[in-house]
Amino acid sequence: MGIHYICRKIKMRFFFKYLFLLIILIIALVSCRKDEFITESGATLKFSTDTVYFDTILSTLGSVTKRFKVYNTHDQSIRIQELYLAGGNSSHYRLNVDGAMGNSFSNIEIRSSDSIYVFVEVTIDPTGHNSPMVIEDSVVFMTNGSLQDVNLIAYGQDVNIFNNEIIESQTWTKEKPYLILNNVAIDSFEVLTIEPGTHIFIHNYASLLVWGQVEAIGTLEEPIVFMGDRFDFPYDQAAGQWGTIYIAPKSTGSVFEYVIIKNSNAGMQVGYPNQDYMPSVEIRNCMILNAASYGIFAFRADIKAYNTIIADCGLVALGLFLGGNYDFYHCSISNIGAYYPSVVAGDYKSRSTPSLYFSNNLDWYELDDDFWVTDVTYSEDLNLNFYNSILYGTKDQEILYDSITDVAFNYYFDHCLIKNHEDSLDYDDPEHFNKIILNIDPAFINDSISLDDYNFELNTMSPAIDSGSINLIQGIPSLDLDFKGNSRTADGMPDLGAFERYD
Question: How many helices (H) and strands (E) does the chain have?
Answer without folding.
Answer: 2, 42
